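User: Fold this, then the next.

Assistant: Folding the first:
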Amino acid sequence: MTVTLIWIAVGLFAIGLYLSWTAGRLDRLHARIDAARAALDAQLLRRASVAQELATSGVLDPAASIVLYEAAHAARQAEEEQREVAESELSQALRAVFNEPDQVEAVRAAPGGEEAAEELAQAVRRVPMARRFHNDAVRAARALRRHRTVRWFRLAGHAPFPLAFEMDDEPPTALADRPTS
């Protein structure tokens, strides 16, 4: 009888240890999602700020400046529900303005244009990486939250189900292909 109780206690301890480890892992994944989302938000804000600054600098033609400024402003001011759409529209505006290498070279030739074009190129290259890191963390957390053990014992607590950030983040070819200095 005593041996049976010891084995039951050992089994319960092992199950408790596994549940605690799984809950800790899930908590770390949620913290990773929060950090990745903050990094993504920072990169999106940087891209919109650089695009807006370039649009108001006077180095672009007036039509391109208006298109780029309006898309960047909409991306910066978008509510959370419309953020993905606004950021996709900024990506489309960037591709429309900077898809031709001649436009990028015209910006680079203007006073202060080299630095502005380089900063924009870095910003548009970093957004897809930040989005990929965020979505990878979301994918890992979702996979863990789908396990029966996590659902049965409610190891996720009251944390909201993680959502991926889906947007068009393809950079303009003229900006993406040029290597950084």
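Now the next one, as you asked:
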Amino acid sequence: MTDPHPFPVQAVILAGGQGSRLRPYTDDRPKPMVEIPGTGVPIIGHQLSWLAAEGVTDAVISCGHLADVLQDWLAETELPLRVTTVVEEEPLGRGGGLKYAAARLPHPDRAWYATNGDIWTRFPLRDMAAFHTERDATATLALARPRLPWGTVETDAFGHITDFIESPPVTYEINAGVYVFSPEFAALLPDRGDHERTTFPRLARQRRLAGYPLPQGAYWRAIDTAKDLTEAAKELASHGR
């Protein structure tokens, strides 16, 4: 029988981080509640709009630091999908927190998306889900090539500088903080601890972990520092995102 929902319709957002590098913005709010300058909307608002546009109908948000601020905003805002929040009574680590939140997903027998609460991105999630299915993966990570914050120089074999390149993309791909997980993935997560040190390496050894390179031109930025907010605002102004 054909699955009436070939693409995931549910997602987990990990929104419990302290956001210490974004102070003073995070003194009175969790990191996902920091507004992108020029939009009047917090990071998590952009995430929920993106997920809804990609066909997600239900999201579970894992809260921690200043959870009540995030919950109050959710209660007062007209949301584009159904949202449930969970709060860890004690720190469970990234893997444990993900497992705890996944237990509240409405469709435990279906695949699901997950994203870190400080990621601002736009790309076709359905394409990533199709990539995941084609490789019969248990988990798929989006892969990004962030740009260096500095300019670089190119030299010839003799040591003459031949060019200057402003903020080039890095050579290596990094974990972009967006995921597709098969239904069985939740059971593989630790009750406590970091899945990136346990579950992911085990799946990689078993060839059950896939990496989806973000498509050319896709927008991606991790909002980790005040400079990231400034750069996001500049990009918004120049690209109309």
